[in-house]
Design goal:
Distance between the termini: 28 Å
Strand order of the largest sheet: 4-5-6-7
Number of domains: 1
Shape: elongated
Number of strands: 8
Radius of gyration: 20 Å
Order of helices and strands: EHHHEEEEEEEHH
Mean pLDDT: 78
Low-confidence stretches: none
Length: 179
Amino acid sequence: MVYTKKPEVFAQVAGISTSKRQAQTFVEQLVMDTVIVVLESQGRSALLPEEVISAILRQLTVNVIYEPLPCQKVFLSIAAGNRDIDDNKENCIIAGGNTVTGICRKSGIVMVCAPAMMTIAAIPPQHLSISGTLSTTNIIMANWSRQMWQNVVNRAVRMLTSGSFGRHFATASATVSWN
């Protein structure tokens, strides 16, 4: 997920977040909704009444840690070269409508975003990982084994990879650890 405060970028990329917090909230909600769907499904499989499932889910907290990528300028193509890059800022290359595929950085005095004249960098890893915690005050869920929780997060990852943003989660994995 990326964000920008530049109005000209909003016109280029529909749905781009307008702040770091908005991008973080979007990712947090996406993960939370997916975990809830998985847990609802498990509750129904266990033949729990809907009101019990709802009560259990209200006792669940998801905290997501994610560092969205700030984009000061957006280039929809690098083929023809793009002028006017912002020095010392993230100039994002966005392909396919909404996927950041690289970052342009100034190379010497050249001010063109083109493969032969720019350093086209990979997206830094801190913008590609999501971590977080699931916690519950529900006595039954609190006593689940590590394997039961691993099954929940594995199902959530599978749902994310097959959902609307599936290609963004194509290499996702999740690991459960105890604190």
